[in-house]
Amino acid sequence: MKKKLENYYYNSLKKKEAPYAKTIKTFFKHLFIFIILVSVLVYYVDNILIVTLLSLGGFHFFYYSNKKIEKKKMNKFIKGLRNNISQEIFWKRIKGMDKDDFVVFIQSVLEGLPQFTEVTKSGQEIDLEAKFNDENIVITCHLLDGENAVEAYSARELSRFMSKNNFDKGIIISSTDFRESTKTFCEIIKEKRKILLLARHDLLEMARDADKLPLNSEIDDAILKRIEYKERAWKHTQEKIFAKSNLSNYILGGFFLLIFGIFMEGKINLLYYVASFLLFSFGAISFWVGIKKENIDYKWEDKII
């Protein structure tokens, strides 16, 4: 599993750069550095042994310095990648909730924050009651999606409830954002009653502080599922390219190019040879795949590829 995760991180960072391409690139980069070091030192030092030793020393310094930089770069990238996947899982989880589940989740988040105590569900017009730094507050939760945002009338209803029940502070928590009219209303009444608006990004930060984001094991599982899906997708695509039904097309295409080359040029040009060889190779692979083919249990997701 560890190796699969490392490969996924590297492919994501390098945008699917092939392993052999990485090896070739690294080799020529190091060779270029070594040649530069030798060229510079030869100009100032006459002793070839000293030049060689200094060049090797400089090369090793560059190699390990570069390796350290690459490791820091990879660690930073991995942290960002896992954070993005964690947020994807978190918002999918929120999206799958109904209003009651969302309120229970918000209650668990607030209970995980030291500033909030005595967080309880309310049977009244609001969702939760709690103490924030020993001050009584009321909380309403809005589970929305897409471009939907909390309207001003929700803030007015909360304000009326606070006025009727002698609450000075309230919180509206939204899974999206707030309309400008809502923000304006809360700004106007802040001298009488303070209503704090907590939007999508605030909810995410609160969940992070309360340790309610997905666990590392959940993130690993999500990455492994992506890897598995890509592997199945590649097998599916490979089977289409090298299907046995394409065998005759590849073979006939190869012979057609050879005959066409003779007809047009009076002889077979190298380009026609290469193109025909590629088609024959595809034909041979299709024949081999057709013989060695194993049944693959595709999942329903593969049908949308």
UniProtKB/TrEMBL annotation:
It comes from the Bacteria. The chain crosses the membrane at residues 20-42, 48-66, 247-264, 270-291. It holds the Pfam family Mrr_cat. Keywords: Endonuclease, Hydrolase, Membrane, Nuclease, Transmembrane, Transmembrane helix. InterPro entries: Restrct_endonuc-II-like (IPR011335), Restrct_endonuc_IV_Mrr (IPR007560). GO terms for biological process: DNA restriction-modification system. One of its GO terms (molecular function) is endonuclease activity. The keyword Hydrolase applies. Residues 95-206 form the Restriction endonuclease type IV Mrr domain. This is Restriction endonuclease. It comes from Desulfonispora thiosulfatigenes DSM 11270.
